[in-house]
Amino acid sequence: MTKRILIVGKSGLLGTKLHERLVNKYRVGGVSKSGAGMNNRELDITEQDAVETFFDTYSFDVVIHVAANTDVDFCEHNQTEAWETNVEGTKNLVLECKKRGIKFCYLSSDYIFSGANPPYEADANPDPVNYYGMTKLEGERIIREELHDFVIIRPGKLYGYTPDFGCDPFTSWVRNSLSEDSTVRVDDSIVKYPTLIDDVSRFVEAAIESDWTGLFNFSGPDSTTKYEWARSIAANYGFDSSRVEAKTADPYADRPQDVRYVSTDFGIDPHGVETGIEVMYKQEYCSFRPIYRMDIAEEFQGQSSGEIRKRLGAVLAREDDIEPDVVVPIPKSGIYPAIGYAEEIGSPLEFALSKQQLRKRTLYDESIDRINVLEEKMRAIKSLIENKTVAVVDEAVLSGKTLRTVIPILGAASKIHVRISSPPVTQTCPAYMHPENSNIFVDDLDIDSESNDIESAIAAELNVSSVKYVDRDSYLLEMGVEGDDICSFCFHS
C-alpha cells in the first residue's frame, strides 16, 4: 500500500521541496498556518483541539514536521510566541502521532549546539546559545520522551530554490541587493555549513524508505562564512563579487560559532556551496520546467506556459510532412501542444483518449493516483480513430511509460504518428528537475547521436509509423531565451 505522508509546514521552502520530491511516489498532503497552495490545508498546530480534529479526519503513515519560527532574533525577543510554535505545536503533533502509531520525522537545527567544541556526533551534549536553539532542543526532548518511531534531523543552514517559493531568503537578499547596485555587507566571523534543501529532501526520503529511527546530524560539506557564501552567490549569478564586503556580526541573539559535524556516510553525497548554487541556477533557469512543472497560467519570460506549449505544437506541425486525419492529445499533458499542432496542420483535434475521472480529494495530491490510472484505466474512443491516420501529441518523453501504455490502446487506427513538442530527453537532470524514479527512454535503445536516429529507434520500439520531436534550437527560440541563458542539459542538442 502506498504510504500516506503529511508535510507540516508545506508552504515553506523545505516543505515545498519535500512535496516536489515525494509526490510522485507517495500520497502526500500538507498543512500550514496559512493553508496557501495546492493540496495544502490550513492548520494552526498550536491549537490542540484543531490538531486532534485534523488527525481524527485524516489517516497518515508518516508525519514530516518542518514548520517552525526560525527567525532567531525574533525568537529571542518574542519568547512566548516562539515557545508556542516551536514547542507546544510540536508537542500537539507528537501526541497525536503517539496515539495513532504514526512515524514522526522532525527537522531540528544545528542551533542546538554552541559551536564551541566541534566536531559534533549525533549523541553529543547539546548546549544552545540562544532561545531558538532551546526551543528546537525542547522539541527533540518531547519527541524522544513520547515516541519510539521517530527521525530527528539536524541540518545546517538551509538554502535552495523551488518554483513556488523562489530562492531561500539569504540568496534572494544578496541577489536583490546586488541587482539594485547596493553593496552587500555580511558577517565574516561565524562559520556556517550551508545545506541544500534537495539534499535534505533526499535524506528524508531515504529515512522513510529505509525506516530509519533516531538522531541524525546532516549538513553540507563546506565550511563558509556568510561573506564567502555571498561572494559565491554573486559570482554564480553574474554579479561583481567585489561589491560584497565583510563585517563582524552583532546580532541581537548569539549564534553558534562553528557547528561542524563528524562526517557520517548516509549514502547521500551532499552538495558543496558551489555545486549547490549551480543546482539552484539550473532549477530556476530550466528549459524543461515551462512544459513539465508549470501550471498553464504561470509565466516564463513574460509568456504563459499554456501559450508556450501551444506555439511549440505549431512549430512541430510546420516542420512536419504528414497529413493526419485526426490529432489526438495525451491527456492532460498533450492538450495545449495538440491544439497548436491541429490548428497549424489543419486537421481536426479529437479527444480520443480518456482517463477515469479521479474522485476529488481534499488533502492528498493526486499525482500518484494519476500514475496508477495511467497504468490501469486509459481507454480509447474507437469511433474517433478507427481506420484513420492519427497524430498523437504529447509535450515530452521521459521514461516512455505513457507512450508504451497509449500506443496499444490506439490499435484501431490505420497509422499512428507520435509527435512530441520538445527535444528528445537524452540525459537525466543533475538538478533533480526530472522525477527521481524516471529512467530515460532512450537509454534502453540502441541509437546513434543524431536526432533522426533517435526518432527512428523510438518508432521501431513503439511499432508506430513515425516519431518526430521539436529540435532544440527551435524549442529555445519559442522560450524566448538564448542557449547560454537557460539550462537545456537534458535535451539532445
From TrEMBL:
Q: What is this protein called?
A: dTDP-4-dehydrorhamnose reductase
Domain (RmlD-like substrate binding): residue spans on this chain:
4-257
Cited CDD domains: dTDP_HR_like_SDR_e, PRTases_typeI
Pfam families in the cross-refs: Pribosyltran (PF00156), RmlD_sub_bind (PF04321)
Any GO CC annotation of this UniProt entry: methionine adenosyltransferase complex
The Gene Ontology biological process terms listed for this entry are: S-adenosylmethionine biosynthetic process
Instruction: Tell me which InterPro entries the record gives.
Output: dTDP_dehydrorham_reduct, NAD(P)-bd_dom_sf, PRTase-like, PRTase_dom, RmlD-like-bd
**What positions does the domain Phosphoribosyltransferase occupy?**
317-412
Extract one GO molecular function annotation from the record. methionine adenosyltransferase regulator activity
